[in-house]
Structure formats: structure tokens, C-alpha cells
Amino acid sequence: MKVAVVGATGLVGTKMLQVLAERNFPVTELIPVASEKSIGKEVTFKGKQYKIVSMQDAINMKPAVALFSAGGDTSKQWAPEFANAGITVIDNSSAWRMDPTKKLVVPEINADALTSSDKIIANPNCSTIQMVVAINPLHKKYGCKRLVVSTYQSVTGTGVKAVNQLMNERSGIAGEMAYKYPIDLNVIPQIDVFMDNGYTKEEMKMVNETKKIMRDDSIRVTATTVRIPVMGGHSESVNIEFEEEFELDEVRKILSEAPGIILVDDPATQQYPMPMDAHEKDEVFVGRLRRDETQPKTLNMWIVSDNLRKGAATNAVQIAEYLVGEGLIS
After folding, report:
1. Topology of domain 2-123+312-325, per CATH?
2. Where are the domains of the chain?
3. CATH superfamily to which 127-307 belongs
4. Where residue 330 falls among pLDDT bands split at 50, 70, 90?
5. Which of 11, 63, 65, 224 has its CA 20 to 30 A from that of 266?
6. Kind and range of the H or E run holding 14
7. Contact 25, 3 (CB under 8 A)
């Protein structure tokens, strides 16, 4: 199978190549695509070198699937061109997520909605993915009524420039700033731009994407998203009000048996999920389970996941794996 990776030299694109190799996706020919300045350079995949090509050359090479991670503007311009050529696009940008004609997919939850006619498939926001993976099995049992989420997000979610800023600050080196403020020894309560309602775009992504993925517009979501000086993954504190009463032992059992989740919840031995444990893992880690003692039917939980893997590259590859497994691409 010919597979194109658009944005192959970026943090997520590089991770996509790594995940494709690790999971033995059936790639017979890799088609790496990047910006004009990178054309002709090479990337390594499974010990072989592949030359980076242009968008149009990639289309002409007729891959079965194209994994996009090159930004929203690029996706809006080029994803339809790939789709019109019969290529299935799995797009990691925000360009198509809330388009009512496009599916927004987390395989553990709603891959069953996909058909062979879906030529542009949206990969959700990283912070949304890990949250819905953790809450969906509980939603099916108890019905999620309202979610209050605060995130603690890795600098890798911003990109190489932000990683360099953090490391430069730690080394006392002046350099290019990805953020308006220092990030080392600091916390920045803004991810993406502010909107008219006072929330950031990242916060509203979590609100809107959650409803679409879980196919339930009645779930109320409110979010505060925060950047912290960490590189291993994103963490989230989530307060869930359910429609039905729950027992903590049953919640633990549901989560421990759910696909894609690892339960780490033992306060007696100080066991709980941390970014350093989730780094380079594909699962979503859940812990700190406890009742909200201020109101009924409400649970507090802590969710951690590697934002470059399950939050981006792995989820996209899992979508492609589902399409192959169901015979929707070949």
C-alpha cells in the first residue's frame, strides 16, 4: 500500500513515520511530503531512504491513504485535491473537525461511522482524544451530563519551536520564543487565540469536538487549557457529573477493561498517571478516581496521554488500520 505522510518533517509527521513502522502498517511505498524548502531531502523509514516530494507529485503517485499534519491552511487547500484523486485523507489539523460533512474519529468510540465514501477524515484535537477515550465507557454506563476539565499540556503540542524555547531557558540561552512569556518555571493559561466569549480556541475545541465524537449534543463541557513546562504528554483533571449513580469499584472495573485505557489508581502506594510514564506509549492512563463530595453522581479523575502519539499520530494510524481492516481502503 502506498502511504503519503504530509508534513513528514514536523514533530507529528515524524511521529507518524515512527508509529507506522512500529505497528507494521502495510506500507509498500512511503511518500513523504513537506514544504517546498524540504523537497529533495530524505527521510528514513524502516531503514530505507525516501525523497521528500511536492504535494502535486504525491497526488500523481496515487497513494491509497495520506496522513496530513501540515497545518489547517495546508489541509484546506490540499486535502480536497487528494480526495478528488480518490486518496483517503486522515487530517490532523483543525480544518475539517467541525465540518458537518466530515467524520471526526477516535477509533475506540466511533470508527463504525466510517464508510468508503469518507475521503477526508478528521483527527480530533489531542486534549479531546484522551479525554473522550477515558470518559466514553463511563458515558455508556452512567450517561455523562456535564464535564469540567482543566488541562496541563506539554510544550510538544506547540511544536519544535516551543521545545527549543523550554530547553534554551533551562540552559540560560537566549533564543526564539514560541510563547509570549517564558515557559520554564512558569504556567501559561492560554492555548491558541482568545475568542469573543473569553475562552481560547483550544478550550472551545474540547467543548465542540467532545459532543461530535460521542454523538451526544446534550453533554455540557467547560474547559480551561494550560501550557506547562513538560514534554512527555498532556494531563487533565476532569470532573464528571453523571445522569445515573455509580460505585467506584464498578468505575474501576469498567475503565480497567476498556480498550486503550490503563488504570493507574492506588493512592496507598502513590500510584497515579504522570506524563513521564505515558511518554512514547499509545494508551490513555487514568487514575486519582474519587467522588466529588460536593454534589451527587459526580466523579473526579486524572487523565494522562502522550499527545504526539494517541493525541495525534497513533490515532491517525489507528483510523487507517480500521479502514484497511474493514476493506474500506486497499
Report:
1. Rossmann fold (3.40.50)
2. 2-123+312-325, 127-307
3. Dihydrodipicolinate Reductase; domain 2 (3.30.360.10)
4. confident
5. 224
6. helix 11-22
7. yes
